Amino acid sequence: MQSESCVPGEGKDQRQPARHKRKSAGDPAQEYRTEIISDLGEIDAAAWDALVAHHADATPFLKHAFLHALHTSGSACAETGWNPRYLTLWAPAKDGRPERLAAAMPLYAKAHSYGEYVFDWAWADAYARNGLEYYPKWLAAIPFTPVRGARLLAEDAHARRLLLQMALALAAESQMSSLHILFPDEAEAALMQQAGMLMRHGVQFHWTNDGYGSFDDFLATLSQKKRKNIRAERRQVAQAGIGFRRLRGAQIDDDAWKFFNRCYRQTYREHHSTPYLNLDFFRRIGAAMPQHLLLVIAEREGQPIASSLLVYDDTPEVSTLYGRYWGALEYHACLHFETAYYQPLEFCIEQGIRTFEGGAQGEHKMARGFLPVATRSAHWLAHPAFADAVERFLERERQGIDAYLDELSERNPFARA
C-alpha cells in the first residue's frame, strides 16, 4: 500500500511502517502497524466504512465513496495542494483472522489554506515575515466540507487515543510546521484538548425540526416580522413564474449533473474565484452514493435556471440535511433563499429530518430560523514561540466568539426564544 513519500520533511524512510506496541495491566501485548497511505483506493471500502459506522455522528462525507471521489476526480490531490497521507493503524492477524484496519485519519500534507473554512492565513503570513516556512502543513479534514464529525475513525476508544498520539508524533517528527484537525465532534475535541492541542472556536447556523407538520407550522413559531418577510420572499419567487423540482438519488441523471455543474461554476465566476470541484466529482458521487443526494432545480417557462445540491442522511442516528452548493444562470430576487433554504426546509419537514446544517458562516440564516452553533478545531504548532503567540490569539478570539454568541442570542428569530 505504501508508496514513497513526496512530502518534504516526513523522515528518511516513510516506506518502513512505524510500529507501536501497547501494554496495559491485565491485558496481553497488542501490536499495531502504522502506515501512511497516499491512495485511498488501496483501502477496502467496506473496511473503511466499517470504521465510520462505529461513530454515532458519522456523516456521509466520511464515507469511502465521497473521499475517494474527491481524489480520483482531481479535486483534492497533490496537484491541487491536497496531498493525501492517510494515517492508518492495523491490528495484527490473530486466531486465523487476517490483519484488519483498526483506525484511520483523513490526513493531508497541505500546500495552502484554501478550502478549509478555518482561516489561518494570518499565521502563515507571520511565519513568512519571520523567514519560516508554514507550508506544507498537516491537515486532518474533509476537503471543502465545513461539517462537524469524527476525524479519528476507530474501532474502539483505545485505538482512537492511539491514532491521535501517532498523528501528533508524526507531526513532531516530520519537520513540518503544524497539525490542524478541523471540525471534530465534541468528544474528539475534548480528547485533542487533553492531548495539549490548542482549541479554536467558530460559529455555524443550524436549523432544528421541532416536529413540524408543514412549512406553515414552522413559520408559526417565528416572530411576526420574520414570518412576514419569509412569506414575502417566497411570494416574489412564485410571482416570477418560477417552479421547483426535487430530484433524489437515481433521479439525478447526467443532464441534471451537467446543469448543476454550470450553476456551481457560475457562482464561483461571479465571485472571481476558481471552483474546487468538477463535473467528474459530481458524477462519481451520483453513481456511488445516490441515497445521500438531493438536487433542487428551479425552472421558469419550462427551462432550468438555478439549482442547489444537498447531502443528507435520514437514518435515525444522523437525520441531517447538509446544504452544500448552489448557483443560478438568471438573477431573480429571493431565488437563492427559496432554492437553497426554503425548498430544503420543506424537504426536511416532509421527510422528518431533524437538522439542517446550512454550511459555513451566514448570519442571514438566522432570519430564516437557523440558530448559532459552536464549532471547534484543534491545532498543534511545532515552533514554541509561535505556539505561544497563537495560544494567546485564540484566547482573545474565543472571548470574542463568546460575546458574538451572546449578541446573536438576543436576536433569536422565534416568537418564544
TrEMBL record:
Task: Name the segments for region: Disordered.
Answer: 1-30
Q: What name is this protein filed under?
A: N-acetyltransferase
Give the originating organism: Cupriavidus necator (strain ATCC 17699 / DSM 428 / KCTC 22496 / NCIMB 10442 / H16 / Stanier 337)
> What taxonomic classification does the UniProt entry list for its organism?
Bacteria, Pseudomonadati, Pseudomonadota, Betaproteobacteria, Burkholderiales
